Amino acid sequence: RYILEKKCRHLAMDSVANFHLRNGACAHRLNWLDDTSPKGMEEFFGIVTESRRSLAD
């Protein structure tokens, strides 16, 4: 819920999430411990959001 609803000036707090969401993607799944690099663990607790986009005709 935090990932989808937390906003800063009506945009997603994370710039990568904002890019994908503004281009028609939606959050599909959270992958826990998908990024166990030092940066991934410190900034995102190892969580990676998988997004999906539906292709319009």
Counted beta strands:
4
Work out the radius of gyration: 12 Å
Task: Identify low-pLDDT runs.
Answer: none
Number of helices: 3
What is the straight-line distance between the termini?
30 Å
The succession of helices and strands, N to C, reads HEEHEHE
Structural class: alpha+beta
- Strand percent estimate: 25-35%
Shape: globular
Q: Overall pLDDT, averaged?
A: 81
Helical content, roughly?
25-40%
Strand order of the largest sheet: 1-2
Q: Please outline the major beta sheet.
A: 2 strands, antiparallel
**Total discrete domains:** 1
General description of the model:
The chain has 57 residues and is an alpha+beta fold. It has one domain. The chain has a two-stranded antiparallel sheet with strand order 1-2. Strands 3-4 form a two-stranded antiparallel sheet. A hairpin with a 2-residue loop joins strand 1 and strand 2. This is Malonyl-CoA decarboxylase. It holds the Pfam family MCD. One of its GO terms (molecular function) is malonyl-CoA decarboxylase activity. InterPro entries: Malonyl_CoA_deC (IPR038917), Malonyl_CoA_deC_C (IPR007956), Malonyl_CoA_deC_C_sf (IPR042303).
